[in-house]
Amino acid sequence: MLGGSTITVQQTIHGYRSGHELLQNSIALPSDVQRTMLVQSDLSGPTLASGFEEYVSGYPLDSLGAYVLARTWYAPEMDRPGCVWTHSLLIAFADLASVPTLSSLAQAFRRPTRSDAYAVSTVPPLTLTVRDSPNRLDDQALLVAPQLIAALYGRFDRTVVLFGADASVFEALVLAVWSQQWPRLRRSFRFCTGALASRAQGDLAFDL
């Protein structure tokens, strides 16, 4: 995969207008999907916390046949405290096997601005070239990795929690864990690198 493969992903932008809501999208979303994404794109806990101004989440949309990879940013420029922006990429399940590493998709994120709250609601899908790139982990991540793998795959009936001083400390490790999974596991894996409270999707708790 030296030249990389090309995939098309749908995208959405969530943020504050008259409340936290869907601002832009490249695909018509069923009402159940809209509700799920509205919840998952909002702040990951009850209050803001220093060091968690930006984080990544991943979760499946089974009814749409897609996996969501999303980056959330605090939006201090907005008038209402606690606002966030979230840019979500919707990757078709069929394309997951062709994505070598999540870091190859993460570069497609863009942080919205205040003008996005009042921009046109329809945006085009993204055409992305995904390439195999090494997962660069620092010494702390390499030290934690074996314990994390054992905790995740030793039991499947509990949420694994990594405690860090900020949302970036284990982001590369979490993306690397997703990247080494086989496609069927990838499309069911729920994670958040900056959870400020327990995360769930309906009745299903996040894995990590």
Helix-strand layout with pairing:
Elements: E1 5-16, E2 20-25, H1 31-40, E3 54-61, E4 66-74, E5 84-92, H2 103-106, E6 126-130, H3 139-154, H4 171-179, H5 183-186, E7 191-192, E8 200-201, E9 204-205
Radius of gyration based on Cα positions = 16 Å
Give the proportion of residues in helices.
10-25%
- Count of DSSP-assigned helices: 5
Instruction: For the record, give the distance between the C-alpha atoms at the N and C termini, rounded to a whole number.
Output: 29 Å
Q: What structural class do you assign from the helix and strand content? A: alpha+beta
What does this structure look like?
- With 208 residues, the protein is α+β, with helices and mostly antiparallel strands.
- 21% of the residues lie in helices and 26% in strands.
- The protein contains five helices and nine strands; from the N terminus they run E-E-H-E-E-E-H-E-H-H-H-E-E-E.
- The strands form two sheets. Strands 1, 2, 3, 4, 5, 6 and 7 form a seven-stranded antiparallel beta sheet that branches.
- Strand 8 (200-201) and strand 9 form a beta hairpin.
Short description:
The chain is of the alpha+beta class and 208 residues long. The protein has helices spanning 31-40, 103-106, 139-154, 171-179, 183-186, and strands spanning 5-16, 20-25, 54-61, 66-74, 84-92, 126-130, 191-192, 200-201, 204-205. Strands 1, 2, 3, 4, 5, 6 and 7 form a 7-stranded antiparallel sheet that branches. A two-stranded antiparallel ribbon has the order 8-9.
